[in-house]
Design goal:
This protein has about 500 residues and is of the alpha/beta class. The chain folds into four domains: about 5-140, Response regulator (Rossmann fold, 3-Layer(aba) Sandwich); about 140-250, PAS domain (Beta-Lactamase), CATH 3.30.450; about 255-335, Helix Hairpins (Orthogonal Bundle); about 345-495, 2-Layer Sandwich (Heat Shock Protein 90). Helices cover about 45% and strands about 20% of the residues. The chain has 14 helices and 18 strands. The strands form four sheets. The chain has a six-stranded antiparallel sheet. α2 (about 35-45) packs parallel to α3 and α11 (about 305-335) packs parallel to α14. The radius of gyration is 48 Å and the shape is rod-shaped. The structure holds adenosine-5'-triphosphate and magnesium ion (MG). Magnesium ion (MG) binds near residues 395 and 398.
Length: about 500
């Protein structure tokens, strides 16, 4: 598209000559004006691509003043026409940022060069300006902090993110050495680290911060950061400065630290449960030896032993039995804590399972306690983990027996609750009871009530039972009154798996 040009020249003949020269060169002349005021008016109306402006105009306003008014309102290149290129006029003309001038008289070739050059320069400058404002917007809206320095490391630019992180305003920081504004220390030792900008200025290569570098901001706060620093190239002149891009790593570091702590915790847990199971297994063998040896002693010693000695042997065997139980409990608890207690539900019939369990008790208990077993008749087959269910019930029964006097009655019951689709187990005793204030802690590992200290126990039974109940998505509750008795209620969801 040919450029539209406005000619401002107070000599009418000259104006016409220039206009016809321009038209011959292929430009469109949108008009001529003979005064500054007329020129401004015509620019407003015709919006030319370029103005040819005579420096000397008759009237109030000369060409330079008219040009500067036009420039202040329009983005239009102006080429001055001047009869004499005196320094003073040229200097004034330069101040209005004209894109060239041409000295009268001129031929059409010179006119063309001046016009083309001005149009071209204007175009290039316009593109540069768009690019610059694009870059500026980009840098301003970036979340990453950006600081640029000159070739001596003095700050020339900071974006708002950099202002935020360092605590310095761009205006204050500008011209300061970057090491003063971007103060970097080793996160671990707190000692200053080699500044990447110094490094870049020496090597002229991209430099990165070491891992775990922190920035000390203007308030003295420590902010972990990540960064990269690159040399700014300026063609021909070599390195023109450095740009540092950095960002806040606090949030990342936080989650990194948490992650590490979690991993350590998991490792420790793993080790603990490994340790527990190894130790328990190692205990089992010598315990088995002790038990067998004591049985053999009793068997072979026969007549040689009096009652007192048999009593000793019995005590050995009781203790072995206790230790065995303890080892089993610790082993299970270890698995519970490592979350490795397997949950394998299968269809079970509750009635035979309970009968089975009670038979074991009646063998062991002889006549010390009476266990009364009741249940609702309509309990259907349900999906539960047999091993875990046995752990639950045997722990509750053990307690009921242990914490109630010889000859006491222990009640075991289960009921199928149709409306809730649950099976409710109850183990009830008429024993020593549990102090109200201690009931809340009952299910914690190793917790033992104050009134139970004289009786053997580790405080693991209920913790294990609770975990087994939870694996079934069930609940366990206790009601108890001192010296009256205790009832444990276990509610497990009834599941009929298809
Ligand atoms: N039926 C009960 N009557 C009175 N107190 C009870 C009863 N059941 C539990 N307790 C109290 O709760 C505590 C925790 O019980 P838990 O079964 O966890 O441990 P324990 O019986 O002491 O030891 P073990 O690990 O050998 O079972 C007991 O020490 C006791 O104080
Ligand atoms: Mg117990």
């Amino acid at each position: 598209m040919e450029a539209k040009i406005l000619v401002v020249e107070d000599e009418v003949i000259v104006a016409r000559t220039i206009a016809s020269q321009l038209m011959q060169l292929g430009y469109t002349v949108v008009g001529t004006a003979s005064s500054g005021a007329a020129a401004i008016d015509k620019v407003n109306r015709t919006e030319p691509d370029l103005v040819l402006m005579d420096v000397m105009l008759k009237g109030e306003m000369d060409g330079i003043t008219a040009a500067s008014q036009i420039c202040s309102q329009h983005d239009i290149p102006i080429v001055f026409l001047t009869a004499y290129a005196d320094e003073n006029t040229l200097q004034r003309a330069k101040n209005t940022l004209p894109l060239g001038y041409i000295v009268k008289p001129f031929n059409s070739g010179e006119l063309r060069v001046a016009v083309e050059l001005a149009l071209f320069k204007h175009q290039v400058e316009k593109e540069l300006r768009t690019n610059q404002s694009y870059l500026a917007t980009l840098l301003h809206s970036m979340n990453d902090a950006v600081i640029a320095t000159d070739e001596q490391g003095l700050i020339t630019f900071m974006n708002p993110a950099a202002e935020g992180l360092t605590g310095w305003r761009e205006a204050e920081a500008s011209g300061k050495d970057i090491t003063e504004v971007l103060r970097l220390v080793d996160e671990v030792t707190d000692l200053p680290v080699e500044h990447p900008v110094t490094q870049v200025l020496q090597t002229q290569e991209v430099a990165f911060l070491k891992e775990f570098t922190a920035l000390i901001n203007r308030n003295g706060d420590r902010i972990p950061i990540g960064d990269s620093a690159s040399p700014l190239y300026r063609q021909l002149e070599g390195i023109g400065g450095v740009v540092v891009v950095f960002w806040d790593m606090s949030a990342y570091r936080q989650s990194e630290l948490l992650q590490k702590a979690l991993e350590t915790e998991q490792e420790l847990n793993q080790l603990k449960s490994q340790f527990i199971s190894t130790v328990s297994h190692e205990f089992r063998n010598p315990l088995a030896v002790i038990r067998t040896a004591s049985e053999l002693l009793e068997l072979r010693g026969g007549e040689m032993f009096d009652d007192r000695m048999r009593g000793y042997i019995q005590r050995i065997r009781d203790s072995v039995q206790q230790m065995n139980q303890l080892m089993e409990d610790v082993l299970i608890m270890g698995r519970v804590e490592a979350e490795r207690l397997p949950f394998n539900p299968a269809p079970i019939d509750l009635e035979p399972l309970c009968q089975d369990l009670l038979e074991e008790y009646s063998l062991n208990l002889s006549d010390s306690h009476e266990i009364i077993f009741t249940h609702s008749d309509d309990a259907p087959e349900t999906w539960m983990d047999k091993t875990l269910l046995r752990l639950i019930l045997s722990n509750l029964l053990n307690n009921a027996i242990k914490y109630s006097p010889t000859g006491g009655r222990v009640h075991l019951d289960y009921t199928y609750v149709l409306e809730q689709q649950t099976i409710v187990f109850k183990v009830q005793d008429q024993g020593i009871g549990i102090p109200q204030s201690e009931q809340a802690q009952l299910f914690e590992s190793f917790f033992r009530a104050s009134n139970a200290q004289l009786l053997q126990g580790t405080g693991l039974g209920l913790a294990i039972a609770k975990r087994c109940v939870e694996l079934h998505q069930g609940q366990i509750e206790v009601t108890s009154e001192l010296d009256v008795g205790t009832t444990f209620t276990v509610i497990l969801p009834y599941t009929a798996k298809v």
